[in-house]
Every structure is written in C-alpha cells, then in structure tokens.
Amino acid sequence: MATDILDGFIARRLKWESEFGARLDSLADLGSYAMAFWGMLSLEYAFCSNHANYFFIIIGIKILTQIVSIIRFQKFPSLHLYSNKFAGYVQGFFMLFYYMGWEVELYFTFMFCVTCVAEVEAILVLLFIPAMRSNLQGIYWMLKKNGRIA
User: Fold this and answer.
1) N or C: which end of the chain has fewer CB within 10 A?
2) What is the pTM of this model?
C-alpha cells in the first residue's frame, strides 16, 4: 500500500503520468489483491472460511468489473476512481488491523460494503463512458462535467 501511494505521488509530482503507467498500476493492484487474498487464505483459513460468502462476493464483483471492461473496450480497466482508492485504503487497513490482533468483525463488514460500492461505481462508469480512459474521478464528477449536476 505504501509503495502504491508513493509511486502515484511521484508520478503526479514529476508529471510522469501516462496511460501505460495507469494500466501498469492497475495490473499491480490486481496482483496485490490476489497476493493479499492468497496470504489471508493460507495463513488465516478459519477466518476466510467463516466469511467465505463475503470473499466470494468481493472476488466475483471484481471479476465482473474486469469482464465488463474487456467486453466493452477489449482492455482491463484503469479507472482509478476515488471510491476504488478509498476502498484500497480501507482494505489495507483491514489487513493491518487484522494482523495486529484487533477485533475486526465490524471493520470487515465496513470494508465489504465500501468495496462493493466502489466496484458497482466502476461497473457503472464502464457502462457509460464512450471510450476507455484512465484516472477518472467517479460518477459524480462525470455527471457534473456533463451538466447533469449543478
């Protein structure tokens, strides 16, 4: 999480942002999610099995986002919506809190809800944008830009 924040900060600060960099960052994010889930499954099987339905929904909705993007644009998404960034931070803090031994049941539910809302927003954005673009902010900003929100 720290290196993801740092590389984005450096790219913006030095004006090194590019479409390729945004796609590479999204691919790295997917790899991080996969490794975090694999680590959780390997090290904390009991927790994962007790919350299997939630994990299946999260994985399913993330896969659905990829499928919608591939069907519409023949590319993996690199939207970088604010909601997805926020969800990533919430997920990272969940892992931190969990491995620190804190009681995380309520926070896990919060993380689940934030993740689902962020992925639903990503799917809606993918359904309504005319062409694939990176580094969008979110639905609110799209509607505001198009004059649908004052």
Assistant:
1) C
2) 0.81
d(CA 8, CA 16): 9
Read off the amino acid at residue 41: L
Is the alpha carbon torsion for 82, 117, 33, 2 positive or negative?
positive
Q: Indicate the domain borders of the chain.
A: 2-145
pLDDT in tens, 27-76: 777 777 777 778 888 878 899 899 999 999 999 999 999 999 999 999 98
Q: What is the 3-state secondary structure (H, E, C) of 87-112?
A: HHHHHHHHHHHHHCCCCCHHHHHHHH
The pLDDT tens digits of the residues spanning 38-48 come to: 888 887 889 98
11 near 24, Cβ under 8 Å?
A: no
DSSP-derived secondary structure for 38-66 = HHHHHH-HHHHHHTHHHHHHHHHHHHHHH
